[in-house]
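WARN no homologs supplied; continuing
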Amino acid sequence: MALMAGLLGAAAQAHGQLYVCADAQGHKTYTDKRAGAGCKLLDLPGAMTEPPRRTAPLAAPARPATQAAATAAPAAGAFPRVDGAEQRARDLDRRQILQDELRSEEQKLAAQRLEFNEGQPERQGNERNYAKYQERVAQLKDNISRTQQNIDALKREIANIR
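OK structure emitted
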């Protein structure tokens, strides 16, 4: 039944209109052509009965090559300019934000290394199973590695500020 509905929907979209016709014995046939008085037009939700009309021309009018190149990319002078003092202030703000993030990440790394205890963290009460302990140690190692990568990225970003 679902397959038939899908096929009917596809047929309705492909041909525009779909009719259901019943013969004298009550057998139904589906067609895109009205075959007689026993045929009714199907109303399928979402089916297009007629393709949409085009209002715009198919091809844009040709423009000279110089005009096309001029409108394709704005000129370098068309971008808004920021004066030097304002740019320095923005750079200082950015540097301060990145340095604050760097300090935060360094504190986080110190706490993680303290908890890691050089690969021998203290076992917790819920870690009676050694595999669970090893899983936590591996997670701690991953966290330390990720935090170190964050610190390295922040240092690179700070070095790139003018």
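DSSP finds four helices and three strands in the chain.
OK
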